[in-house]
Specification:
The complex is a heterodimer of chains A (about 400) and B (about 130).
Chain A: E1 5-10, E2 22-28, E3 31-38, H1 46-51, H2 55-63, H3 70-85, H4 91-119, H5 123-144, E4 153-154, E5 157-158, H6 166-190, H7 192-198, H8 206-212, H9 216-220, H10 228-231, H11 252-275, E6 293-301, E7 304-312, E8 318-324, H12 326-337, H13 346-352, H14 357-360, H15 379-392, H16 398-404
Antiparallel strand pairs in A: 1-2, 2-3, 4-5, 6-7, 7-8
Chain B: H1 8-14, E1 39-41, H2 51-55, E2 61-67, E3 70-76, H3 85-89, E4 95-97, E5 112-115, H4 117-126
Antiparallel strand pairs in B: 1-4, 2-3, 3-5
Classes of the chains: A alpha+beta (about 400), B alpha+beta (about 130).
């Protein structure tokens, strides 16, 4: 620390952030020398709440982990439950799930394009991309009933069927969106404002991306060729042909290019699904009690790989549910991308991973910038800390501990 | 060709177009057919199996027996998350999700709706 070093807290409430999250920046002049991310301002205890409710109720709770990619979390959870229960989901249900998933990706990427435009002061792009996003939102509302939180999944299938009248409407909307996306690709590759502002900002090399475990479009923009849809196909991705978009720019510009090109792949997938939609039932009857077992489910959400772990104990309630949202994998990458960069790049670099902090807030880890000491506790430490904390407020557990022979006392 | 102002043509064209927004609440958009709005309860169909209560993720619905084979539903619109799982769970189609979505009230008490044979019939005649 010299006289030019100082610390700037950004967040939890800050105009540049859309959700409450705290970033403590250690600055050297105008440059960021280190950054500490403090998660936990959106912690809602969803994982614990899942253990207290039945699987059917959890489906709606898990859906509310994230507002933008609600279908991703719901499907990921349901896949794990179905695997434990050994349910054979009908093909038509899988196709409908994939269709909603891709429509969700379209709406999420168009939303991101607008947010990115807004963060660099290009609000014209925000207005137009969000206007076009309404087209896909209307389609989602038509198919599922709601614009967000579609609630289209149920254990063993889907709740809402597609009728023959829907298909031409979806295809028409996809044609409109494809035309608009081509226009955005043209804008992204020809507009000086975007190219100059985004090029070279938030650099993440291939090696660093692999080392820090980047996922989704953030990783693919650094040339990491990873996509769960192709590598470990779920739902009906085995039956559709699409390309995994990667880019060699390694910066925020590359991430923008990957996302707009992924939109085109999504339209391709939607068209294939609608053309090959199989007939048959949309759901199988699921038991209320799920047999004991555990499963890990992977899903390529619009932001990257989403992982859910479910442990069942034979009752109608899960024993443990763990959610690893894609932003959690990417949030450490931000700290690396911002190192030795200017403060003014911070909003767009954070926005470039398409963060969803309410998804991410599953755990709290506190790290001191500079010192590098982690403020994490082991189980015995936490135990003795809680005893000490209660003793200070006048409650003594030492007699109880002797009675129940608690280790460490 | 890389140059600034690539969107200017679009912006100027928009000057002569109708706005993309609509004048809500004066102009109302029709809700989609599958929309999950306020619940409607048919007391004459209810058999009191309480499956809706069991499956509700937010404890928004309570079914009570008020007489011989007569039931009433107490729906808390503030707690309801409008997932319509109760509609799916009901074996007798006694619950239905309507397209009604403008549910704001001035007090929390007004959001608790009691639905039995008398109140449901009277609300039907009103609307």
């Amino acid at each position: 620390m010299d006289r030019y070093d100082f610390k700037i807290p950004i967040g939890p409430q800050h105009p540049a952030l859309k959700e409450p999250e705290s970033f403590l920046l250690t600055m050297h002049g105008e440059k960021i020398s280190s950054m500490t991310v403090r998660l936990g301002y959106n912690h809602r205890g969803i994982e614990k709440a899942c253990e207290l409710q039945t699987y059917i109720q959890d489906m709606y709770l898990i859906e509310r982990v994230c507002g933008i990619c609600s279908h991703s979390h719901a499907t990921c959870f349901i896949q794990a439950v179905e695997e434990i229960a050994g349910l054979q989901v009908p093909k038509r249900a899988l196709y409908i799930r994939t269709l909603v998933a891709e429509l969700e990706r379209v709406h999420s990427h168009l939303l991101w394009l607008g947010v990115a435009g807004h963060e660099i002061g290009f609000d014209t792009l925000l207005m137009y991309s969000w206007r076009d996003r309404e087209v896909v939102m209307d389609i989602l509302a038509m198919l599922t009933g709601n614009r967000v939180n579609y609630s289209v999944n149920t254990i063993g299938g889907v709740r809402r069927d597609i009728t023959a009248e829907h298909i031409p409407q979806i295809l028409k909307a996809i044609d409109t969106l494809e035309e608009r996306t081509k226009y955005y690709i043209q804008i992204a590759t020809e507009e000086t404002t975007i190219i100059k502002r985004l090029s070279g900002v938030g650099m993440l090399s291939y090696d660093d991306g692999v080392h820090l475990g980047a996922v989704g479009p953030t990783a693919r923009a650094s040339g990491i060729d990873r996509d769960v849809r192709r590598d470990d196909p779920y739902a009906s991705y085995e039956d559709v042909k699409f390309a995994v978009i990667t880019d060699k720019h390694c910066d925020v510009y590359g991430r923008a290019v990957v996302r707009v090109l992924e939109l085109m792949e999504s339209y391709k997938i939607i068209r294939q699904i609608l053309a090959n939609l199989p007939d048959g039932p949309i759901a199988v009857k699921a038991p209320r009690k799920i047999p004991a077992g555990e499963a890990l489910s992977r899903y390529e959400a619009p932001r990257g790989e989403d992982v859910h772990y479910v442990k069942a104990n034979g009752t109608d309630k899960p024993e443990r549910v763990k959610v690893r949202a894609p932003t959690l994998a990417n949030v450490q990458v931000v700290a690396h991308m911002l190192k030795d960069r200017y403060l003014a790049d911070m909003p767009i670099v954070i926005a470039a991973i398409d963060p969803c902090f309410s998804c991410t807030d599953r755990l709290i880890s506190v790290t001191d910038a500079g010192k590098g000491t982690k403020n994490t506790m082991t189980w015995p430490q936490l135990h003795s800390y809680s005893i000490e904390w209660h003793r200070k407020s006048g409650i003594d557990f030492s007699e109880l501990n002797k009675k129940f022979k608690v280790p460490g006392n | 060709m890389i140059r600034p102002g690539r969107m200017i043509k679009q912006v100027l064209q928009s000057l002569f177009k109708k706005p993309a927004t609509s004048l809500y609440p004066f102009v109302k958009t029709a809700m989609p057919d599958k929309f999950r709005g306020r619940l409607k309860y048919y007391p004459e169909r209810c058999i009191g199996c309480m499956l809706c209560m069991k499956d509700c993720p937010s404890d928004a619905i309570v079914i009570k027996k008020i007489g011989d084979k007569k039931y009433q539903a107490e729906i808390n619109l503030a707690r309801c998350i409008y997932c319509a799982q109760c509609v799916d769970s009901c074996p007798k189609d006694a619950l239905e999700a309507t397209k009604e979505f403008e549910l704001a009230k001035f007090s929390r008490e007004n959001l608790k709706v009691v639905c039995n044979e008398e109140t449901c019939r009277s609300s039907e005649t009103k609307t």
